[in-house]
Amino acid sequence: MKRFKALAMAGVLALSLVLTACGSNTGSGSTGNSGSSGNAGTAASSSGELIKVGVVNNPPSESGYREANVNDMEAVFSEANGYELKTFYSLKNDEQLQAAQGFITEGVDYLLISAAETTGWDEVLTKAQEAGIKVFLFDRMIDVDESLYEAAVVSDMAKEGDTAVQWLLDQKLDVYNVVHIQGAMGSDAQIGRTGALDAQFQSGAMNLVVQQTATWDEAEAKKIVESVINSNEDFNVIYAENDGMAKGAVAALDEAGITHGVNGKVIVMGFDCNSWALRELLAGNWNYDGQCSPFQAQIISDIIQGKRTIDSKIIINEEKGFDAATITQADIDTYGLGE
Amino acid sequence: MANSKKKFLSGGLGQLTIPVVAIVLLVIFNLIRDPSFFGVGILHNNDGNIVLSGNLITIINGASELAILAMGMTLVTAACGGQDISVGAAAAIAGSVFVKILKSSPQIGGGKVLLAFICACIVAMIFGSFNGTLVAIFKIQPMIATLILYTCGRSIAYWINGGATPTVNSPIITAIGSFIPGIPVPTPVLIVIAMAIVFKLLFKFTSLELFTQSVGINGSAARLNGINSTFIKLLTFIILGVCVAVAGSIGVSRLGLINHETLLLDVEMDTILAVAIGGNNLGGGKFKIGGSIIGAYVIQTLTITLYAMKVSSTDVKAYKAIVIILLVVIGSPVVKQKFGKFMSKFLENRSGKVMKGAA
Amino acid sequence: MQNEVLLQMSHIEKRFPGVLALNGVDFTLRRGEIHALMGENGAGKSTLIKVLTGVYQMDGGQITVEGESISIHSPQDAQNNGISTVYQEITLCPNLTVAENMFIGREDGAWIKHRSYEKRADEILMELGIPARSTQQLGDCSLAIQQMVAIARAVDMKCKVLILDEPTSSLDDKEVNMLFKLMRDLKAQGVGIIFVTHFLEQVYEVSDRITVLRNGELVGEYLTEDLPQVELVAKMIGKDLDELNNLGENEEKEVKQQEVFYEARGLSSSDAMPFDFSIRKGEVNGFTGLLGSGRSESVRAIFGADKVNGGDVRINGKNVKITRPIDAMKNGIGYLAEDRKRDGIIAELSVRENIILALQVMNGLFKPISRSESEAFADEYIKVLNIKTASRETPVGSLSGGNQQKVILARWLLTHPDYLILDEPPRGIDVGTKLEIQKLVLKLAEDGVSVTFISSEVEEMLRTCSRLIVMRDRHIVGELKGADLNQTQVMKTIAGGETKDGEF
């Protein structure tokens, strides 16, 4: 997925420019409320001073995760909640750096960053600090000194894996024969979600039938599972590192007449909590779906408004795992990504 | 007999020698490795239909999109002497349009699926003619011209449905992507057969084959014989557009889901390889669609073989590359010529010895 | 100075499989002279040049430069011996600067710093009076300047012998004059220049001496002032003037006074100057002139083969617009191109497919000729034209030149044209085939088909045509018929001096 991104840079550049324009427009609907900037006067200040927040993020086209993330930011930092939001989306680090610089010059109160790359941010963050702008990192860490940001709200992928594997162990199966479908090798999500399971294979608590990367590709996942079925190997767990690949795996099971889900022969596990995936859980077709929460905005907002104190600079976003046995429609409405 | 043998060895199958030999070798290799590799089973799937299963079915089924794209790519290659590298991205666009129409209202009926497919076709043909215009009218190298859509195609696909991975659930979509109740053969395989027949009829009832080859072999002569080579080149891209729409729609129907990032990811390279393995000259000219189809199955057999051998799928690409380099080198004119010379000498020597022996 | 021998090539022999391309040719170049090398295509000019520049290895003979015997095995050898060539097509890199082009790929230029070689390039350009700056991108210069930069490059490599192969073919008059000035300057500096061209006037304008080759043999070396144009043409074509005169007046060919089929006024294309032309039904006429005289370009304009710029065309008295080959074909015109390989055959396709191609194009995309029908057509014409091929499915590229030509002829005959244009290649067809084709042309004419015929063999044209249009330097300079239709008159008209309209 990332690899394609690299290739797609040029094309997405155009896209992100358009999106930036859109984002800025929607975000800065009431420019000028905050006094000093020259072209004031269009909007009336009904709720006092708005808090100016600049968000530097990846474009929503990156993934379903990112789209939910972007929507969440826009929903939480709304005018109704007392914010004036400026946004910039790009997959390119240098463009992100420039945009951050721009936000500092414009004089935002808070700068929120999900960086394309972990390096190169020292200078900009130092400038922000000098200008008295408070910086929050979300979703992704940056290689800078802790003192340069207020807090980082991130997911712990390894914890997602641990939660999932613990759930699996709690099922108390007689034997665990696992087909493990990995995401693009080297990505954070893949490394985190693979780690916990690998530990089980090493300890002998679970048997590895096949471990293959489908590079987040649904169709590839289906082929991998078909290949396992065709070689008549026995397995009772499919651990796919995202929902799409789990769906591909299930399609292969369906075609081969192998039952799955609640009361089925094979346990199906996925990640990301797409709404459609949670519905599969509710229908009993799958067994488990691990959350990778894109919802960091509320935590940051709470800190800004003093409703939450910072105990540690790194705040792990709490992430759930859903079980087919206990999931409800309300969970889907709350936590499901997409429609 | 010596004569016929000679003819066979020096390419009695002509253009198809390499792909046929490759697929035979792969089959033999697999049979030695695992005699039951190609065993076909019959079972009930989870929808209660009787279906065929096994590696053979997986291979033929899995290669469907590739085979369909290879058919269109063969024509573009023949006429333009270059390849369209945007087929994967264009298929993502077509697939997104397909899903967009399907999701426009809650009910999904046969008519709506047809409408969705037609819309996907139209959109893919428009993008095809965009590529075709760059190549035929502005004379841009095909690979460069299609690089544009290759780069931005998946972003366009994103715009159509927004982010996430929209899903469609309908028995009709399952029937297209998987099995039609009562028919044990996977539907994509039937679609490949239908497309092959469409191409066959296209060549029978139009002179497209002759014109395409003429334009590809000798553009200058084709022009002096009154062929509008611009139109022919454009047409091949539009036909490829239809193939892209079909492949994209199959890809979406298989899982009832569109992921604009991964739908038919990297398929363009496999498609071009299928055309090359099929013995077609990538520089344009004479072509055999059949060769490209076999080429697609060669690639898929190779992939599934490697999966069955539990080769890590990151390594699969490397192994594939090695085998493909071998095939393409063996199929190159230089090697063919040398091999032909060697064989004729070898046969001469042998028949000479046999004659001596008889005397 | 002009008497000092610079380059001496003696008894040069060069064999190609089955052909003796050069048979004991002598050539002498003196210091400070411009020496024109003349001959029709296939005479051996380019072979001789390629031997001299090391592209080909000679099979016999000797080359001396300034009295010293040298051996040339590669273009590098030639350069080291002071022999430089500027080809017809510019072989420089248009995206580099003038200076870079002058120094690229030269041993002595490899390590020179940018500044210093730009300075040196400017000096040379100034010295030779070439209006270009060293820092200019070559592609931005006109073709003439590019040509001159190529010459400057050669001159700076201390060349003694400069070979100019068709340098003027893509230049306009002004540019030609610039080039000639440069050539004269170099001549004054003592460089020996070998000048290869098709333009007779230019030879007489600039050269001191002429060497004529024919069929790989030396015809002779002449001082330009001693050799009238008519005689030069006769020597190139291979007929002694007296002998030509003796052939006498041809009997007037019978011309059926029928209505005009095709008529063009002021027709011009990207490659052909405006001209008027008409042909009657059943008439066989010819375009003649030396190669490069514009004869092919004119008939290509009739067919719409090149970009047509203007002119009124009428067919059967009706105004028609012919801008593309398909327009001409729909109006009943067929055209066998001069360059068979480039413009005629589709080499990898079968004889059958090649034969039906034009008819199929006229039928259109959606009315394919059925397999059985096309096989019948192919068999018919293979028989009628006696095409020697293993089968109708044999790729046409594997046939001999003459048989390829017949396949293309079959292709056009199959369209049943009202007007057929045969632009015959100068080489590659055996005499037998030529005769067969001529007979066929006459038979077609009897059936009312108009034919325009182009051949480098004047005799052939005289046998078949009732009217000859003579071209020189891209203009029609005469139209011969009746009593004028004889070799002498043709030669005279080709050579000029008797221009019809007094244009020259």
What's the structural blueprint in terms of helices and strands?
The complex is a heterotrimer of chains A (339), B (359) and C (504).
Chain A lengths: L1 H26 L23 E7 L6 H13 L6 E7 L3 H14 L3 E4 L8 H9 L3 E6 L11 E4 L2 H14 L6 E6 L5 H16 L3 E7 L4 H13 L6 E4 L2 H14 L10 E5 L3 H8 L5 E3 L6 H8 L9 E3 L4 E3 L5 H7 L4
Parallel strand pairs in A: 1-2, 1-3, 3-4, 4-5, 5-11, 6-7, 6-8, 8-9, 9-10
Antiparallel strand pairs in A: 10-12
Helix pairs in contact in A: 5-6, 7-8, 9-11
Chain B lengths: L1 H8 L7 H17 L7 E4 L5 E4 L1 H8 L1 H17 L6 H16 L7 H27 L5 H20 L9 H7 L9 H19 L2 H10 L1 H6 L4 H27 L11 H11 L11 H20 L4 H19 L1 H26 L1
Antiparallel strand pairs in B: 1-2
Chain C lengths: L4 E12 L2 E12 L3 E5 L6 H8 L7 E6 L2 E3 L4 H6 L2 E4 L11 H6 L10 H15 L14 H14 L4 E5 L7 H16 L3 E5 L3 H7 L2 E6 L2 E7 L5 H9 L3 H6 L13 E10 L5 E6 L3 E5 L6 H9 L4 E8 L2 E3 L4 H6 L2 E4 L3 H5 L6 H13 L7 H14 L16 H13 L5 E5 L7 H16 L3 E5 L3 H7 L2 E6 L2 E7 L5 H9 L9
Parallel strand pairs in C: 3-8, 3-9, 6-7, 7-8, 13-18, 13-19, 16-17, 17-18
Antiparallel strand pairs in C: 1-2, 1-4, 4-5, 9-10, 11-12, 11-14, 14-15, 19-20
Helix pairs in contact in C: 5-6, 8-18, 13-14, 13-15
- Level-1 CATH class name of chain B: Mainly Alpha
Portion in helices of chain C: 25-40%
Extended strand count of chain B? 2
Q: DSSP strand (E) fraction of chain B?
A: under 5%
**Major sheet of chain C: size, sense and barrel closure?**
6 strands, mixed
What sort of overall outline of chain B do the alpha carbons produce when their principal axes are compared? globular
Structural class of chain B: mainly alpha
At the fold tier of CATH, the topology name of chain B is: ABC transporter involved in vitamin B12 uptake, BtuC
CATH architecture name of chain B = Orthogonal Bundle
- Pair with the most extensive interface? A-B, 55 and 48 residues
In what order do the strands lie side by side in the largest sheet of chain B?
1-2
Termini Cα gap of chain C:
33 Å
Rounded to the nearest angstrom, the radius of gyration of chain B is 22 Å
The number of domains of chain B is 1
Instruction: Give the distance, in angstroms, between the N- and C-terminal Cα atoms of chain B.
Output: 19 Å
